[in-house]
Design goal:
The protein is α/β, with parallel strands linked by helices. The protein is built from 10 helices and 5 strands, in the order βαβααααβαβαααβα. The protein has helices spanning 30-38, 47-55, 58-68, 81-89, 92-119, 136-139, 155-166, 172-177, 183-189, 200-213; strands at residues 18-24, 43-46, 124-128, 147-152, 192-195. A 5-stranded parallel sheet has the order 2-3-1-4-5, sandwiched between helices. The two termini are 34 Å apart.
Length: 222
């Protein structure tokens, strides 16, 4: 049994949290990369998850109803994210209006989760925030990152994934990305790049290598 700690002995400070900003194209596999980079002891702060929660809040539901009407809700009264997305991506003014009453709450929740993770001494936090670069002047999250990672995948593969997993029609990926920073510019600004146009084992190997390079995993002894 270990000896008791004498009274007044300073306790070790929590291990600093290594924050990774993750971005990439739609259906590039960001969620999978984020989960693997975070590892068993890390945390993924996913903007899309937080956005879903924000849409369910009473204040935002009221704003949705008064701005877009009942057509953006399911029959059970749940905000329909696909209908909302189709509505705002076709109309820049509508998109700006939506962001005006959702983004402040989303940013606040992201920052609260990041602060909680740091306070708990979480070793790794991955910020899976699609607009990490575009909206930096408003949320300031890029400055919190120790490293940034771009997840790259071929356009045709991302199109196929979006069709299979989300039921999107051809061209929808490109149409939505047209409203964002060009992928080439995002890739150029990333500190690291993970290729995800191959198999899952290939992705696993690439992410593990990146994690070792960043000092998040012990070096292999083999």
């Amino acid at each position: 049994m270990s000896s008791p700690i004498p009274p007044g002995t300073p306790r070790a400070s929590p291990r600093p949290t290594f924050v990774i900003g993750l971005f990439g194209g739609i259906a590039s596999g960001k969620s999978e990369v984020a989960r693997r980079l975070a590892g068993a002891d890390g945390v993924v702060i996913e903007a899309d998850r937080i956005a879903r929660d924000v849409l369910q809040s009473p204040g935002v539901r009221f704003d949705l109803l008064t701005t877009f009407g009942g057509r953006v809700f399911d029959l059970d009264g749940t905000p329909d994210r696909e209908v909302i997305a189709r509505t705002v991506f076709q109309n820049p003014a509508a998109r700006a209006k939506l962001e005006s009453f959702t983004h402040p709450a989303i940013r606040a929740k992201i920052r609260a989760e990041l602060q909680a993770a740091r306070k708990a001494g979480t070793p790794v936090v991955v910020l899976d925030v699609p607009l990490l670069l575009e909206n930096e002047s408003k949320h300031g999250l890029l400055a919190e990152c120790d490293e940034t990672v771009f997840v790259d995948a071929k356009d045709e593969l991302r199109e196929a994934r979006a069709s299979a997993s989300r039921g999107w029609r051809p061209g929808e990926v490109a149409r939505r990305e047209a409203a964002q920073m060009p992928l080439a510019a995002k890739r150029a600004r990333a500190g690291r790049v993970v290729e995800n146009s191959g198999s899952l084992p290939e992705l696993e190997s690439s992410v593990e290598k990146l994690a070792r390079d960043l000092g998040l995993r012990p070096e292999s002894s083999t």
